[in-house]
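Hello forum,

I keep getting stuck at the same step: I have a sequence, I want structure tokens, and every attempt I make locally crashes halfway through. Rather than fight my setup again tonight, could one of you with a working pipeline run this one for me? It's a single chain of 170 residues.
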Amino acid sequence: MLYLYLAVLVLLILAAYTSISAAPWLPTRKVDVNKLLDDAKLRPGNLFVELGCGDGRVVKAAAKRGYRAVGYELNPVLFFIAWVNNFGINNAKIKFINLWAVDLSKVDVVMAFMTPRTLPRLDSKLRSELKSNAIFISYIFAIQGRKPIKKGKSWFIYQYSAKPKSIDSA
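Reply #2:
Ran it on my machine without issues. Output:
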């Protein structure tokens, strides 16, 4: 019985950590999933990444459209749910990793549902890692100080341009 209590305690601590480090889990509304993927203008074979994929519903929808879709989740319970929901779906992968450790340099579209407190840090990561013309979809909250290229019903789409070359690399 002690092991059960310890396991529950560990799961609660991990869930609390993920809520503090990025955002608590609130699912993307089912009615919005396909609309925001339409607005992303992905093409088959493009790489779509969801940071903090929760139950994996957006990753699943992206993979079913023919995109290479990867969801990253740190909450072990949500990771398991997302993994089960995407099991056997071609082009869908769910990975258990902290979103701040993910390399985004080859990604075409990134999506995240983060709190306004977390978005500036994420914007900095996106600016330094995303390739030219990559897209970021912020669900619900806008990035303060940035102008989206498109605003959906509940999402904001931002385009990231090429990083300026340093004098040394020219």
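Residues 2-21 form the longest helix (20 residues). If your local run keeps crashing, start a new thread with the error log.
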